[in-house]
Amino acid sequence: MKNSKNREENSNSSAVIKGLIKLIFNFLNHLIKDWENKFSSKGYRELSQKYDVIEKKVFKDIKDLNTKIEKLTTRIFWLNLLAAVMFCCVIIELILIIQMG
User: Fold this and answer.
1) Mean pLDDT over all residues of the chain?
2) What span, in angstroms and rounded, lies between the C-alpha atoms of 20 and 18?
3) Are 38 and 44 in contact (CB under 8 A)?
4) Among candidates 16, 18, 36, which has minimal Cα distance to 28?
5) Helix axes 2-39, 41-100, angle to 10 degrees
6) What does the alpha-carbon distance between residue 2 and residue 7 come to, in Å, rounded to a whole number?
7) In 3D, which of 47, 50, 27 has the Cα closest to residue 37?
8) What is the pLDDT along the chain (101 residues), one digit of tens a residue?
9) What is the DSSP string of the chain?
10) pLDDT at 73
């Protein structure tokens, strides 16, 4: 009974150890591939070109968004000003109607 229990524990622990070792080697394999891709000149050039294109697009989009935000804030300002003037006109008209009535 004790022998079978020890065997089960050993087999369970050995399966876990085997899984961990396999995981470590897979991780190392991915690290090596990433390292090779990172420092290969062709891959590095391609990645830097892609990054430059993406960076230019992002900066262009940010600039466009800033201009659109500025235009929108000016429109909102003028609409609020117009609404305030119209509200004042309505109040003045109401005061005049009440005085004449």
Assistant:
1) 84
2) 5
3) yes
4) 36
5) 80
6) 9
7) 47
8) 556 655 655 566 677 778 878 888 888 888 888 877 776 666 677 778 888 999 999 999 999 999 999 999 999 999 999 999 999 999 999 999 999 87
9) -HHHHHHHHHHHHHHHHHHHHHHHHHHHHHHHHHHHHHH-HHHHHHHHHHHHHHHHHHHHHHHHHHHHHHHHHHHHHHHHHHHHHHHHHHHHHHHHHHHH-
10) 95
Q: CA-CA distance, 43 to 29, in Å (whole number)?
A: 18
Say which amino acid occupies 3: N
Per-residue confidence (pLDDT) for residue 65, from 0 to 100? 94
- Contacts of 43 by beta carbon, 8 Å cutoff, 6+ apart: 37
* CA–CA separation, 7 and 12 (whole Å): 8
